[in-house]
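Worked example 3 (structure in, sequence out).
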């Protein structure tokens, strides 16, 4: 059967914003399409559920609009299914005319710094997963350090620094699970030092997120006036970008004031490039930085000037990285699946227009263009990728078994306890009920077996993999 005689069958891998926006764009282009949306975790919404900080309800509210998209009859959610483990790419290709990967970037970019492997040196992504109640990370987090360094001046660095600096009770109106509240309650950090290797005009965070630091009654933000310097390039940047100017103005205001005497100090340092995480007995005991010049580049001052900071933990917030997908090419240097306008490139050597694309395989979101940009930016990715897919629609390699039941049969044969969209409604109601007991909107469930059990309306003991007798 050719795909032109029936509805197009498309698999989307990853039920975060990128995958859901791709489903939306696809339905708008072809209302007859039939989509299966696969998700490794038992619940959908990806980064919104497991990346956005709990005290950012404004961003988390995007879930409401994604809900409406997942309510559409053309989309079927299949959660708790790990593509590459539970289903192979070949199996997907037998059941679908096209496969779109929207697997995002959930791990930390490596930092080649002496001492990066010491105990007390953490990747920001791991910490974010912990405080967001990700089912696959440890339930506890060691928060014994009184002085902490955060490397990088992007929005993730600010999230990490803010969560480390706030009182746990300030997060009691959020969805944080009990283990995270207990962990943060025991947090001993009183000083958090955030380090940018360039100047204020080159900070990557956004003005709203910066100003928010100052709203906590337990955080004194401290900025050194000596860091508020600009060379010609930085000044030009400030002139051309309202956002950069807003950031610099805010930092300058803060650098000119006295600390208000709040319990926790959050220092924002600039022109300090980390060169070594200092250790003793295998544990972090400090951070060494080198002063960089005021021209906003990595070049040093004429004389090399180092500073040692007394910290017992270092969080590396220098950017995320995508993971390769089994069976697909991966560009190790840029950390993305090589593609052109969303079409996966099978033969990166051939130049366009002779470049060979992997027929029927597409990418969207951070796995397509790298881990930068806000959630809304993945809408543009989706539009471009779906336009490519629709242009190819007549030439797609038709699925051998396009029946919607074919995938369910495969999952049943393998004993995969998948969750679905009605199951999310059950989990959603369950978490809201947990929250209602404490006067909160929701309390997140962390344990994977409980998430699956609630979603499948079964007992946790029956929520694991089922062994099928052959
Ligand atoms: P990011 O914005 O790319 O920031 C990474 C930071 O790490 C930069 O300051 C960078 O400095 C620094 N860095 C990189 N390599 C370094 C090294 N070797 N040594 C020292 N510093 C280094 O990444 P992100 O913070 O992970 O954020 C990813 C995306 O998610 C961004 O688009 C962000 O806006 C978005 N996000 C948004 C929110 C929100 O809206 N609330 C929250 C979280 C994340 P250089 O510039 O000098 O390279």
């Amino acid at each position: 059967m050719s795909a032109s005689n029936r509805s197009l069958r498309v698999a989307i891998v990853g039920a975060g914003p990128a995958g859901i926006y791709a489903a939306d764009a696809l339905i708008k282009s072809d209302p007859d399409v039939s989509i299966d949306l696969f998700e490794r975790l038992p619940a959908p919404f990806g980064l919104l559920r497991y990346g956005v900080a709990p005290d950012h309800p404004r961003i988390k509210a995007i879930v409401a609009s994604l809900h409406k998209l997942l309510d559409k009859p053309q989309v079927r959610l299949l959660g708790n299914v790990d593509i590459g483990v539970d289903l192979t790419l070949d199996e997907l290709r037998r059941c679908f005319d096209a496969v779109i990967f929207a697997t995002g970037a959930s791990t930390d970019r490596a930092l080649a710094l002496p001492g990066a492997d010491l105990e007390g040196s953490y990747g920001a992504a791991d910490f974010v997963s912990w405080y967001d109640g990700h089912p696959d990370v440890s339930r506890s987090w060691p928060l014994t350090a009184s002085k902490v360094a955060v490397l990088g001046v992007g929005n993730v660095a600010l999230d990490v620094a803010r969560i480390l600096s706030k009182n746990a009770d300030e997060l009691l109106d959020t969805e944080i699970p009990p283990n995270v509240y207990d962990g943060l309650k025991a947090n001993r950090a009183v000083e958090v030092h955030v380090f940018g290797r360039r100047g204020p005009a080159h900070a990557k965070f956004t003005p709203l997120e910066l100003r928010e630091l100052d709203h906590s009654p337990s955080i004194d933000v401290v900025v050194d006036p000596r860091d508020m310097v600009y060379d010609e390039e930085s000044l030009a940047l400030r002139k051309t970008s309202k956002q950069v100017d807003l950031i610099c103005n805010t930092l300058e205001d803060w650098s000119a004031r006295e600390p208000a005497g709040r319990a926790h100090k959050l220092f924002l340092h600039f022109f300090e490039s980390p060169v070594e995480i200092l250790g003793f007995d295998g544990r972090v005991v400090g951070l060494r930085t080198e002063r960089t010049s005021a021209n906003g580049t990595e070049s040093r001052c004429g004389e090399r000037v180092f500073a040692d900071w007394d910290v017992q933990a270092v969080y590396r917030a220098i950017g995320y990285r995508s993971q390769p997908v089994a069976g697909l090419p991966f560009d190790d240097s840029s950390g993305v699946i090589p593609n052109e306008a969303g079409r996966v490139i099978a033969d990166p050597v051939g130049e366009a227009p002779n470049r060979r694309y992997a027929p029927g395989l597409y990418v969207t979101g951070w796995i397509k263009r790298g881990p930068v940009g806000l959630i809304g930016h993945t809408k543009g990715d989706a539009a471009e990728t779906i336009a490519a897919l629709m242009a190819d629609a007549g030439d797609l390699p038709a699925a051998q078994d396009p029946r919607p039941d074919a995938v369910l049969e495969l999952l049943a044969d393998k004993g995969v306890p998948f969750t679905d969209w009605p199951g999310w409604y059950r989990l959603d109601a369950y978490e809201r009920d947990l929250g209602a007991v404490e006067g909160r909107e929701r309390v997140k469930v962390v344990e994977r077996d409980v998430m699956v059990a609630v979603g499948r309306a079964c007992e946790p003991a029956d929520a694991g993999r089922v062994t099928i007798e052959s």
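Notes: The chain has a mean pLDDT of 93. The longest strand covers residues 272-280.
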